[in-house]
Design brief:
Blueprint (H helix, E strand, L loop, with lengths): L5 H9 L46 E8 L2 E6 L3 E5 L1 H5 L11 E3 L4 H7 L9 H17 L1 H8 L9 H14 L4 E6 L7 E7 L10 E6 L8 E4 L2 E4 L7 E3 L32 H12 L10 H6 L3 E9 L2 E8 L5 E4 L1 H6 L8 H21 L5 H59 L8
Antiparallel strand pairs: 1-2, 2-3, 3-4, 5-6, 6-7, 7-10, 8-9, 11-12, 12-13
Helix pairs in contact: 3-4, 4-5, 10-11
Length: 440
């Protein structure tokens, strides 16, 4: 027969028919007694241990700590976040709830802070102030989900993201360009040089370049609209000029146009060891942060990877799959990296540099290991020196082979800059009837 403590017995008596715990009645045990037993929030499940791969491609786990019952913080090499117990996660409104129970630390963690401010310390007014701050962050980052969760409509000044979206939509309806940056030149008084795009974002290209009278652009490229900092609209008084882009020879080592490789590794292959099969199986099922959080296997099948690469630091090598058409990578195990049929994107010089790094790390381990085997130390030192020599030779050969392309790129950039400057001077003269470099 199991012996229960008084607290356990009281909790057992308060259990309702559906397995939840009802509020406990007030007890009379002196001033120090609790009026009710706190809700049991369960325990976070499937939390990786330190040193193991983290979720969503965050890298290896550096530390794991329980903030409160059912709330665990996981810090990884590349990112981090909070993992909730099923009980905690069910308490999150469905539009804001993450089915996995994971909430990354930059934005989604504010959802947890809003729902459970008491889990992060403090009391009374401190908890309420924290809840208000976290609620504002949720409105800023997830206005659509917040509105669905609470049946409200956010107005101007209540959400950074919503205000930014509203400004961009209004500018698009009016056919306006939004400034990305603005500069002035001493030789061109009276105007501001403005680069602008349809949405005021620098990424993605599509920039147009304008000369704007400085009295129409007194506050720079950005201004406040509600809570958002948005690109200022380019006025009708602006004069556009052509900013010439250099036409550079292609980089033979570029992976930008490499086709995707959609063959999903077979974790059931008889040629694999049991450990390799298990690691590949886990990798293929692991969700990747961003978008619909599809797994690695699903993303391979959809053509989101086109190759693979590796990085070595302090003798340890990390392996990655390379996203198609971008510099993003997803970490995987060595077994998955070997099984994936995409090309290895490392250059010969990069491979030799990683060999040299591993050789140097092995020699340093021998030096700090207090070993008496001098011959082993000589062997490791010779291996390190040989690897470094091979890397330097490969690096110099690659530099010499790429020298003509680098010279052509520099010539193309110089010619593009000359043409751009000529276009800019003509636009300035047409706009101001003055010659650049001669103040009015």
């Amino acid at each position: 027969m199991t012996t229960l403590t008084p607290a356990q017995a009281a909790r057992q008596a308060a259990r309702t028919g559906n397995g939840e715990y009802a509020e406990m009645p007030r007890t009379d045990q002196g001033d120090g007694a609790l009026a009710s037993t706190p809700k049991f929030w369960g325990y976070a499940e499937n939390v990786p241990r330190e040193g193991r791969p983290g979720p969503f491609g965050w890298g290896r786990v550096n530390s794991v700590g329980e903030i409160a019952q059912g709330v665990v913080h996981v810090d990884c090499e590349g990112h981090g976040g909070l993992k909730l117990s099923p009980e905690r996660n069910r308490a999150i409104p469905p539009p804001l709830r993450r089915p996995s129970g994971w909430y990354e630390e930059d934005c989604e963690s504010h959802i947890v802070g809003m729902a459970f401010p008491e889990a992060f310390g403090g009391s009374g007014a401190e908890v309420e102030a924290f809840r208000e701050a976290e609620t504002q962050s949720v409105k800023d980052w997830f206005p659509d989900d917040f509105e669905k969760a609470y049946g409200v409509r956010l107005g101007l000044g209540e959400s950074y993201t919503r205000d930014e979206q509203s400004w961009k939509a209004a500018a698009k309806d009016r056919g306006l360009k939004l400034a990305v940056n603005a500069t002035v030149r001493p030789d061109m008084p009276g105007v501001v040089l403005v680069a602008a795009t349809d949405d005021g974002e620098a990424a993605g290209g599509g920039e147009c370049h304008y000369l704007v009278p400085d009295e129409h652009f007194q506050h720079g490229a950005r201004h406040k609209y509600g809570r958002a900092s948005v690109g200022a609209a380019v006025p009708d008084s602006a004069v556009e000029y052509t900013h010439v882009k250099p036409v550079c020879p292609p980089d033979p080592a570029s992976h930008a146009n490499r086709p995707p490789v959609t063959d999903v590794p077979d974790h059931r292959s008889a040629a694999l060891s049991p450990t390799a099969r298990d690691r590949i199986f886990r990798d293929l099922r692991s969700p990747v942060a961003g978008g619909d959080q599809a797994s690695v296997g699903e993303r391979i099948a959809r053509g989101e990877y086109s190759g693979k690469t590796a990085v070595t630091q302090n003798g340890k090598t990390a392996y990655f799959l390379s996203h198609t058409g971008s510099s993003l990578v997803t970490p995987v195990s060595k077994a998955t990296w070997d099984a994936y049929q995409g090309p290895d994107e490392r250059t010969p010089a990069e491979k030799l540099r990683q060999d040299a790094d591993r050789a140097d790390a092995a020699y340093q381990r021998w030096q700090t290991g207090w070993r008496d085997d001098a011959s082993e130390g000589e062997r490791l030192r010779a291996r390190r020196d040989q690897a470094n020599t091979a890397h330097r030779a490969a690096q110099e050969a690659a530099r010499q082979a790429d020298a003509p392309r680098q010279a052509a790129m520099q010539a193309a950039r110089t010619e593009a800059a000359r043409q751009t400057e000529a276009n800019l001077y003509r636009a300035y003269q047409a706009m101001t009837a003055r010659t650049p470099g001669r103040p009015a």
